[in-house]
Amino acid sequence: MPFLFPLQAAHHNNYEILKILLDRGASLPQPHDLKCSCDTCLAASQEDSLRFSLSRINAYRALASPSLIALTSSDPILTAFQLSDELKKLKRMESQFCSEYSELRAQVQSFATSLLDHARTSYELEIMLNYEPGAEEIWDPGETQTLERLKLALKCKQKAFVAHPNVQQLLATIWYEGLPGWRRMNIVSQTIELLRLGIMFPVYSLAYMLCPGSSHGAFMKNPFVKFIAHSASYMCFLLLLAAASQRLESITLTFIGEQFHLDILLDMVDEWHMKERGSFPSPIECIIIFWVFALIWKEIKQVQNHRSQITELGISSVGLPSFDFLGVQRGIAGLHERPVELGRLLHQHVLCRMDCLEVLTF
Fold this sequence. Notes:
The chain is an all-alpha fold. It has a domain at about 305-360. It is about 70% helix and about 0% strand. It has 21 helices and no strands. It has helices spanning about 5-10, 15-25, 40-45, 50-65, 65-70, 75-95, 100-115, 120-130, 150-155, 160, 165-175, 185-200, 200-210, 215-220, 225-245, 250-260, 265-275, 285-305, 310-320, 320-335, 340-360. The longest helix has 23 residues, at about 225-245. The radius of gyration is 31 Å and the shape is elongated. It starts with a helix and ends with a helix.
């Protein structure tokens, strides 16, 4: 058979022989899908089901060869991820050969992870992890790291790839960017630095809003600094809620009026208590309202960053009443001609509602 020699060479992971055979036009059999119902698969399965399953295992054993992937694929990491997902499905569907498919999947995952060991510098590792097939623009150093390849590894559940020391070192570098000496500090110095960042977050936030290109604005873009600023912001928000629930402004004015014998402050507090029901919000409540509007604005900005979801959000939230009315009206009007139209419209409507909720809860 013409593919017998390359199949054996792939089984033994012999790089030199595989290269010679592939250069001379040799090919390997591509296994059909497990649910394939073509005449060839049906005939082979009916003739000898065991032989048919073993031939599939032998084909995937050849495809899982690291040498074959390196010689035939222009993107070995992506090929390894896709093959790993395919072997995972086969492991579930052909449970009788679960151990064989698990071994092949572990081999493919080990090959993808071993490619990270060939990165000698951070630049090479960044190129590997930020590469996106089919992208219009190639990532250049200095730009925001998208880490598309790492996202794909998470999606494909490549735990060994994500947990590789080189990847973790790069993630730690990105996370603590702007604070290069953080990991070398002792616990006391780290606590002091956290308090300084937490206290200074209003200044950094204003600098980021007014002058995003300034040094303080660029400092706020660092992930760890942004995390500390968000945490400090939520802590302040919780403190404001606690202060509003305890009527802190009334307690403060009463204390000052009693200590310094200022009757005007005491009269003001008494007047507040008399007109408390239906009155305007207190100063702290005004700050809370402003804070909530700021949080809403932040969520809107996050939605705007996902341009692909803006149309879905507009259909499902802004134009929701008109979509409901027109969609159901069209479905009912054409029900006698197209019985499936109403179900299809309602299905699209439910999907739009779900997309809206996903965007709003992001």
